[in-house]
Amino acid sequence: MAADFHSIDQVMEKMADARYIADRALATVLFLAHRLEKPIFLEGEPGVGKTEVAIVMAKLFDTELIRLQCYEGLDATTALYEWNYPKQLLYIRLQEKEKRSKDEIEKILFSSQFLIRRPLLEAIVRADERAPVLLIDEIDRSDEEFEAFLLEVLSDFQITIPEIGTIRAKNKPMVVVTSNRTRDVHDALKRRCLYHWIDYPSFEKEYKIIMTKLPGIDAKFAEQVARFMQRLRQEDLLKRPGVSETLDWARALMEMQKDYLEEAVVMETLGCILKYQEDIRKFKEEIWQDEEKRAVYIS
Amino acid sequence: MYQSSIQEALRSLKEVDICTKEDFLNALRANFVSGDLEWAQFPQLFEQYWTSVIQGQDQGPTQDKEDVGSGTGESAEAKVDKWMEGAGEQGQETDQGMEQAWVKRVGYSPVSPIEKVDVGKFDKEDIAVAQLALKRIMSTFKTAKSRRMRRSPQRRSVMDFPRIVRKSLKYGGIPMELFYREKRKRLKRLVILADVSGSMERYARFVIPFLLGLRGVGPRAEVFVFSTSLAHVTSIVRHLPVEKALAQMVKCLPEWSGGTRIGYSLHQFNQNYGPGLLSRRTVVVILSDGWDLGAKELLRREMAHMGSKAYCVIWLNPLAGDPAFQPICQGMQVVLPYVDYFLPANSLESLKRVGHVLSKIMVH
């Protein structure tokens, strides 16, 4: 393994090297997850960097990131494995000429060469050489049946394929489960994980994030952007912008060769940070009309 | 808290430096907490515990938790009693005075005199009736299809490749027999938003069984209660026995039987739960009299958002049970354009009717 965590401080340092600003609480959870080989359950509003944690972890351990994006109706054939049917059919046709017995063909037909590995199986098989990072993204989008199924996989990292047998992971993959908390995930699943809630960043943290992620940015400008976003999140909006919106916006402004915030530019690039027509209208009509508020935003 | 979490927490503590308070807290929190609310409360409880230990009057963390949980001076049980008695107290000055004035003016009484006497009491039978009615409503929405498959005798949907390959073996790999699968039908998701503000007190007899009746409806119902803010009570309704569930629900919502801010409550719902719960497979049922003293524009905006995301929005209004009823109150007028079905609901009888009406409308 490329990295091994010895202390919480070391985790924080390494995360910072990989350009992820982690507070001590998150670093503690990551440290414990690594030491105790437990999955991490990350909750938080969209765009606060939950998925990014898994990506950075994969980078730190110099290993592969295997991602399972959840959605309603996700089932075993898309999450676990599936047989490659066209290949099987072709194989049978080819073997028919060689006059092999039915049993013989069936044995080969349902062997690993005809198996399509989906993320969960992939993570378990790959773990033989080097434990990958398995990201189970937006678990709250999947349905309860899938959750129960996942529970089984996460508890002992083994999968039983009736035709082949049980496949067990030699090393436990590092598992990161994320949720936008749009529905309650069952306690049984949470209990097996270490829980961490990622909040919107404080001003200092957001400033640091901008500075690390966009190295070319002017410090004063970064401060302005961070302050603007902090204010904006206090407004009553349908969808409050996350850190990813902040970074998108700062990047867009840099592309436009701006190095300070001005009123006209904010109006032009509002689409980077507000994604609902209602929010944009509200911002234009209720906030931006007011000269005092405008001044506070661009201070 | 589970026994296993305690064991896991101890394992975690072995790994961190327990002399550092922050790390000690973080390690415990990662193991004991399972939601954002608990996450925010934990440091406070942690501090409280140590303060009480230092002062030598350790009352145990359980008691501390109680204090934080209830928040207000009034105990949850007292609130339940008050709410259940609700309709009896005619002279009660609430901020719903406007609504009461209106009720007096049109001489409308939503409950018959006999029901009025025992309006505070509901029995388990009521819950059973509500359950039946809700199941009926749910059955009308069974049309949503899941991606999960089952065997089908008919030639439609998709082919069942695993079976075809298996059976083709005996024909030397020629798929002679074809098999099909079809998508399994499944329930749509039901989201209930129930108004438990002061003006709804008189319908307690209906609202409570309605909420508690949801325990039998299956895993795809989510329950929220609101007055001036919103609380997610699904797990309470589902897991606790009737008496405890009610007390616990009241604890969740600081303003139980207080004022109403439908717009703000819906905003909270849309913002926090909307992205996951609102989809073309979701049926939203709002149970409220529509007396909103909050911002009209906000209510309109949130209803529009909800209407555009959900499969269908049903508004059950207890007041609408009266034939002379006109949706004149501001709140109701604002929301009507975004509501798919506006139905009366002031008794369990009417709920049964709602189920019946819906099954006719929904099944073509």
Task: Tell me about this structure.
- The complex is a heterodimer of chains A (299) and B (364).
- Chain A has 299 residues and is of the alpha/beta class.
- Chain A has helices at residues 8-17, 24-36, 50-60, 76-79, 85-97, 102-109, 119-126, 144-156, 187-191, 203-213, 219-234, 243-255, 263-268, 277-287, 291-297; strands spanning 40-44, 65-69, 81-83, 115-117, 133-137, 158-161, 165-168, 174-179, 194-198.
- Chain B starts with a helix and ends with a helix.
- Chain B has a six-stranded mixed sheet. In chain B, strands 1-3-2 form a three-stranded antiparallel sheet, with no helix packed on it.
- Chain B has 17 helices and nine strands.
- Chain B is of the alpha/beta class and 364 residues long.
- At the A-B interface, helix 2, helix 5, helix 6, helix 9 and strand 9 of A face helix 1, helix 2, helix 3, strand 1 and helix 9 of B.
List the helices and strands and how they pair.
The complex is a heterodimer of chains A (299) and B (364).
Chain A: H1 8-17, H2 24-36, E1 40-44, H3 50-60, E2 65-69, H4 76-79, E3 81-83, H5 85-97, H6 102-109, E4 115-117, H7 119-126, E5 133-137, H8 144-156, E6 158-161, E7 165-168, E8 174-179, H9 187-191, E9 194-198, H10 203-213, H11 219-234, H12 243-255, H13 263-268, H14 277-287, H15 291-297
Helix pairs in contact in A: 1-2, 10-11, 10-12
Chain B: H1 3-15, H2 21-32, H3 36-54, H4 61-70, H5 76-85, H6 97-105, H7 113-117, H8 124-140, E1 145-152, E2 158-159, H9 161-168, E3 180-185, E4 189-195, H10 204-212, E5 221-226, E6 230-232, H11 234-239, H12 242-252, H13 262-272, H14 274-277, E7 282-287, H15 296-309, E8 312-317, H16 330-335, E9 341-344, H17 348-362
Parallel strand pairs in B: 4-5, 4-7, 7-8, 8-9
Antiparallel strand pairs in B: 1-3, 2-3, 5-6
Helix pairs in contact in B: 1-2, 3-4, 5-12, 8-10, 8-17, 13-15
